[in-house]
Amino acid sequence: MKIHVVYAGRNYPLSQQMPSALDLPAGASLAAALAALTSLLEPDAALPASCLVAVSGTHAGTVGRCVDRPLRDGDELLLIAPVAGG
After folding, report:
1. Is 43 buried (19+), middle (13-18) or exposed (0-12) by CB count in 10 A?
2. Is the pTM of this model over 0.90?
3. Which residues contact 9 (CB under 8 A, 6 or more apart)?
4. What Å distances lie between residue 63 and 2, 50, 58, 86, CA to CA?
5. Secondary structure letter of residue 41 according to DSSP
6. Which end of the chain is flanked by fewer CB atoms within 10 Å, N or C?
């Protein structure tokens, strides 16, 4: 199944090197998708734990503490890195 991946916030530079879609086995979960993305990063790199995670418009927590759930073909995985400043 194909999952569309969108990166926002401070993750924008990450989107230049990461895929905009993942091909996962049928029945794969959110945890599997995050693990697949992490495996594509440089050694010792990780997705920021504070990134917000949403699946097809439904908030699922953060990368560090997300609620695992099954994914469906065509779901959109959104990773939003918080932006601070003022």
Report:
1. exposed
2. no
3. 51, 80, 81, 82, 83
4. 20, 6, 14, 25
5. S
6. C
Task: Give the C-alpha separation, 7 to 11, whole Å.
Answer: 6
Bridge-partner residues for 9, per DSSP? 81
Q: Which distant-in-sequence residues (6+ apart) come within 8 Å of 40 by Cβ? A: 18, 19
Q: Are 43 and 26 in contact (CB under 8 A)?
A: no
Strand 52-55 relative to strand 2-9, pairing? unpaired
26-68 tens-digit pLDDT: 999 999 999 999 999 888 878 889 899 999 999 999 999 999 9
